[in-house]
């Protein structure tokens, strides 16, 4: 198990992209990682775009990011909600400041944009937010996965195997 003992935090809000939340969580748990889901409220059921539920373990305000080794930001429409919480922005900035792996896929780039951490960073995302990413100073690539230091980005659900292979690799090297 490559990630035994690693603790990973995943952000959640309603309308997350079901596969972009669950596929990474399950793969990381298969590798021995502990994954906690954080939302606006603890122990609340959030529902994905396609109806798959997930229950948060902890609320944003109770998260101590120093207790975690990495961050996951799933896509869907949830990132547009997530980026409005000051606590979420603080969490993202912590992971960036300490160069802990940050995984973002699809529309999740919106959260990193709002945290103002993408200037000069090579990334990808759903092409629908390419302009948002480049206007935030990112260098956008139309590739399945892009790794730039501690930031691992991907476009959409069909890219999940490539995304998780690289995210796990970055995390395992820490």
Automatic annotation (TrEMBL):
<feature type="domain" description="DJ-1/PfpI">
    <location>
        <begin position="6"/>
        <end position="168"/>
    </location>
</feature>
<dbReference type="InterPro" id="IPR002818">
    <property type="entry name" value="DJ-1/PfpI"/>
</dbReference>
<comment type="similarity">
    <text>Belongs to the peptidase C56 family.</text>
</comment>
<dbReference type="InterPro" id="IPR029062">
    <property type="entry name" value="Class_I_gatase-like"/>
</dbReference>
<dbReference type="GO" id="GO:0016740">
    <property type="term" value="F:transferase activity"/>
</dbReference>
<dbReference type="InterPro" id="IPR006286">
    <property type="entry name" value="C56_PfpI-like"/>
</dbReference>
<protein>
    <submittedName>
        <fullName>Glutamine amidotransferase</fullName>
    </submittedName>
</protein>
<keyword id="KW-0808">Transferase</keyword>
<dbReference type="Pfam" id="PF01965">
    <property type="entry name" value="DJ-1_PfpI"/>
</dbReference>
<keyword id="KW-0315">Glutamine amidotransferase</keyword>
């Amino acid at each position: 198990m490559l990630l035994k003992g690693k603790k990973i935090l995943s952000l959640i809000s309603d309308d997350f992209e079901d596969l972009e939340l669950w596929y990474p969580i399950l793969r990381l748990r298969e590798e021995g990682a502990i994954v906690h889901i954080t939302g606006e409220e603890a122990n609340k059921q959030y529902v994905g775009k396609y109806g798959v539920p997930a229950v948060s373990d902890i609320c944003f305000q109770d998260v101590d990011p120093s207790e975690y080794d990495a961050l996951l930001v799933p896509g869907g429409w949830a990132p547009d909600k997530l980026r409005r919480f000051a606590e979420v922005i603080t969490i993202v900035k912590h992971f960036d400041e300490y160069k802990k792996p940050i995984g973002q896929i699809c529309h999740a780039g919106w959260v990193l944009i709002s945290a103002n951490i993408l200037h000069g960073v090579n990334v990808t995302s759903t092409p629908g937010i390419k302009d948002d990413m480049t206007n935030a100073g990112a260098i956008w690539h139309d590739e399945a996965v892009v790794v730039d230091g501690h930031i691992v980005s991907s476009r959409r659900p069909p890219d999940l195997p490539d995304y998780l292979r690289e995210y796990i690799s970055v995390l395992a090297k820490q």
